[in-house]
Amino acid sequence: MSSRAALASEAVRHVLGQVAPGAQEPKVVTTEERLRNGEPYAFVALRLPPADSHSLRQGLDKKLSQIHGVTLHVNAHDEWEVRVDGVPCLLLRLTPLTPEPAEKHPAKGRLAIVIDDMGEDVAVARDLAALGVPIAFSIWPDSGHRVQVLNIAQSAGKEIFIHLPMQPKGYPKVAPGPHALLDGMTAERIQEVVRRAASRVPGAVAVNNHMGSAFTESTYGMRAALSAIKGQGLFFLDSRTTAKSVGVAEARRIGLQVHQRDVFLDNDLAVPAIVAQLRVAEAAALKHGHAIAIGHPHKQTVAAIRAWLKKKSPSVHVVTVSSLPPQ
After folding, report:
1. Domain locations along the chain
2. Which residues pair with 44 in a beta bridge?
3. What does CATH list as the number for 109-323?
4. What CA–CA distance (Å, rounded) separates 249 from 239?
5. What residues pair up with 71 in beta bridges, in sequence order?
6. Measured between alpha carbons, how far is 172 from 154 in angstroms, rounded to an integer?
7. Which domain of life is it from (predicted)?
8. Could you tell me how many helices (H) and strands (E) the chain has, helices first?
9. Of 49, 57, 124, 132, which is the most buried if we count CB atoms within 10 A?
């Protein structure tokens, strides 16, 4: 993977030289070491010099297609990602040829949206893919239509998560679904469950918890689960189904990239209520620089996101979770 990421970086510089001869070299903004299937690689954010974005995209699409498994994905008009086998390795931040007035489109907040419980409703998956923003699909490993939904996500260049069931409070009356992580499991059994889930959602970059209000409070269980997640080359998004979750603390302890949910979007399924929650997430992104919102595959949620996108602040960009700084 590292060798193809290096080829992709060279391709970016080559195309930039063709589109904007004499331009300055791309500037490295940040470099972060990550793991994929135990192999280290660098996730690099580059600031590109001014260039015609249309010509640049055409050139990159053509050049990157010559490298196996490498694709270009547009997060926003001024932020693109280069992925190797679906894993982000380069973040390209564009500089317009004619800079717009700072007060017109200030880049103040970045919001990532994750849709949980994916893999059952194919029609909603198609609608989400058509929204034109990088919404992450978090797919149940045992969902009935996971293969179709995976194909939709991959064809649309969406970031893919594994929506891993974990024991909730009230279990077994409250059931998380098959092949869940449960309190009392051995570390070996927990690792088996994680490996199985990863094998059923190929191309995933991360895991987030389905339910888990009991399991994510267990230091022993989460330590074993997060070690297994790290071993699969994935990162963890804590859905924060309990305020007492140890997910972030344990992930930090083992050096695993970790993020956490800020806002749930659709506890109330009325479209105006979901739009209101999107505005809460938008405000959090503006206040803190970034935020993560989690929703579910309801038609009302799709309609609310579509309506919000038309009126959201231009200062807030919808981005992938992996492009955000970890906790």
Report:
1. 2-93, 109-323
2. 31, 90
3. 3.20.20.370
4. 14
5. 83
6. 35
7. Bacteria
8. 9, 14
9. 124
Q: Is 163 helix (H, G, I), strand (E, B) or coil?
A: strand
Digit-coded pLDDT (tens) for 111-135: 999 999 999 999 999 999 999 999 9
Report pTM. Answer: 0.74
Cα 134 from Cα 303, distance rounded (Å): 16
Quote the strand ranges of the chain, DSSP E.
27-36, 39-47, 70-76, 79-84, 87-93, 109-118, 136-139, 160-166, 206-211, 235-238, 258-260, 263-264, 290-295, 316-319
- The DSSP H or E segment spanning 284 is helix 271-288
Q: Which residue has the tokens 């994750």?
A: 114
Alpha carbon distance 318, 282 (integer Å): 10
Output the 3-class SS for 41-89: EEEEEEECCCCCHHHHHHHHHHHHCCCCCEEEEEEECCEEEEEECCEEE
Q: What is the mean pLDDT of residues 227-232?
A: 96
**Rounded-to-integer distance, Cα 256 and Cα 234, Å:** 9
Over residues 234-250, the pLDDT tens digits come to 999 999 999 999 999 99
What are the structure tokens assigned to 196, written together? 């199985």
Dihedral angle of Cα 19, 25, 27, 28, to the nearest 10 degrees: 100
pLDDT 10s digits, 51-110: 888 889 989 999 999 999 999 988 777 889 999 888 889 999 988 776 545 445 555 899
- Both structure tokens of 300: 């009302």
User: What are the two backbone dihedrals, phi and then psi, of residue 284, each rounded to the nearest 5 degrees?
Assistant: -65, -40
For the chain, how big is the Rg over CA atoms in Å? 20
Q: Which residues, including other chains, have CB under 8 Å from residue 68's CB and lie 6 or more apart?
A: 4
Within 8 A by CB and 6+ apart from 289, the residues are 108, 109, 110
